[in-house]
Backbone:
């Protein structure tokens, strides 16, 4: 996660992006079979966001089911399945993703 040099710092001494990466690392440390990720890249720059998404894709390929919520239509397109929630209704059509700032739920089921 690129945080080794910050290991001796307290949470209040970390930036928002660093805190976000610590939270992701903690969630992944237990090798979960199911992961809920609410805006996992919200405080990250684009390069770090791509790295985190790549890591989530690797974990998914290894057998972890991931449910990721995001407002970023580009990130929502990466997983194999996307569901959009618009005005409290579920819309299972990827073409509708990213419209009106509605959150998308990107689902990546573990391989069978």
Residues:
């Amino acid at each position: 996660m690129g945080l080794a040099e910050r290991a001796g710092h307290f949470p209040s001494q970390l930036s928002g992006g660093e805190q976000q990466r610590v939270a992701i690392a903690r969630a992944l440390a237990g090798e979960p079979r199911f992961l809920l990720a609410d805006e996992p890249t919200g405080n990250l720059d684009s390069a770090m966001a791509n790295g985190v998404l790549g890591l989530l894709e690797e974990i998914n390929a290894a057998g972890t089911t991931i449910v990721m919520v995001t407002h970023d239509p580009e990130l929502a397109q990466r997983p194999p399945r996307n569901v959009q929630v618009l005005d409290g209704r579920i819309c299972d059509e990827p073409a509708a993703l990213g419209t009106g700032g509605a959150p998308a739920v990107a689902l990546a089921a573990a391989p069978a």
